[in-house]
Specification:
Blueprint: E1 16-22, E2 32-39, E3 46-53, H1 61-66, E4 75-80, H2 84-94, E5 98-99, E6 107-114, E7 117-118, E8 123-124, H3 127-144, E9 151-158, E10 163-171, E11 176-181, E12 184-188, H4 190-200, E13 204-205, E14 219-223, E15 229-231, E16 236-237, H5 245-258
Antiparallel strand pairs: 1-2, 1-6, 2-3, 3-4, 5-8, 6-7, 9-10, 9-14, 10-11, 11-12, 13-16, 14-15
């Protein structure tokens, strides 16, 4: 990619951005590129997505399917996105530190748009943070276009004489998180939930002992959107013994259940 020019428009002077991502040396069927264009110059956020998986011609259909993909995973979208993303995008751009280095083996670049004019290429110094942000935008587009439903995490806490069930639904389309317990639901903080999701997907999940229904004996059980239930501490194990993520997950859900 071209060398970065790290002069950025001053605060509130840009009316859109483009994100371009290349997965680099990752092999197929995972290797892919995408471009997201976001424009709010007319007061409504418009999004364009072009996602293309690369180098799959060297793989058989079975090799692709065995990795959890299909033979037609490319995706394009051109339509609205909830305006709540404008603030998130603006804050992300305004707080980003930019690198003067070019990318050589994949990564993400940003181009500000002002009054329809695409600006100079920007390379975020924190590539990982922007790659995650790009994934969030793609998920928001998938939900907006009804390609995918929002992710729901189910959780069960079983004590000596009580069973408490709850769920968290993460709606990327409008950046809302709904916590549900019984017939009651409430919104919870987006950033708080992002940190919880990082914790939830950090441990090792043993699918060989996963169940299709939650347990009824004392313990904590979680289902991460695929219909399979795992017991924390048995089917969900800390990868790093010095970092007790499993206990942190239990603690957070216990706090949520207590309201």
């Amino acid at each position: 990619m071209p060398k970065a020019n790290f002069t950025m428009p001053q605060k509130d002077t840009f009316t859109g951005i483009e994100l371009e991502f290349d997965s680099g040396i990752i092999p197929p069927p995972y290797s892919h590129v995408y471009r997201i264009s976001l424009d709010w110059s007319n007061g409504e956020l418009k999004a364009k997505l072009d996602l293309h998986y690369t180098d799959r011609e060297e793989l058989s259909e079975n090799e692709i399917v065995d990795e959890g993909f299909t033979t037609n995973d490319d995706y394009s979208y051109n339509g609205p996105l909830n305006n709540v993303w404008v603030k998130a995008i603006s804050e992300k751009v305004e707080t980003t530190k930019w690198s003067g280095k070019s990318l050589e083996e994949g990564g993400i670049i940003i181009k500000p748009i002002d009054s329809g004019i695409v600006g100079k290429i920007k390379v975020p110094a924190d590539q990982e943070a922007w790659i995650v942000f790009g994934q969030d935008l793609i998920q928001a587009i998938y939900e907006t276009s009804k390609k995918e439903a929002p992710l729901t995490i189910h959780y069960r806490q079983v004590d000596t004489d009580t069973i408490k069930d709850c769920a968290i639904t993460i709606q990327f389309s409008d950046r809302e998180v709904i916590f549900t317990e019984g017939n009651e639901s409430r919104n919870i903080n987006w950033e708080y939930t992002v940190q919880l999701m990082k914790l939830i997907f950090t441990p090792d999940y043993n699918y060989e002992i996963a169940k299709e229904a939650p347990g009824n004996k004392r313990g904590a059980f979680i289902e991460c959107g695929d219909g399979l239930w795992h017991e924390l501490g048995k089917g969900v194990i800390n990868i790093d013994p010095s970092n007790d993520v499993v206990s942190k997950i239990k603690e957070i859900f216990s706090d949520l259940l207590e309201g």
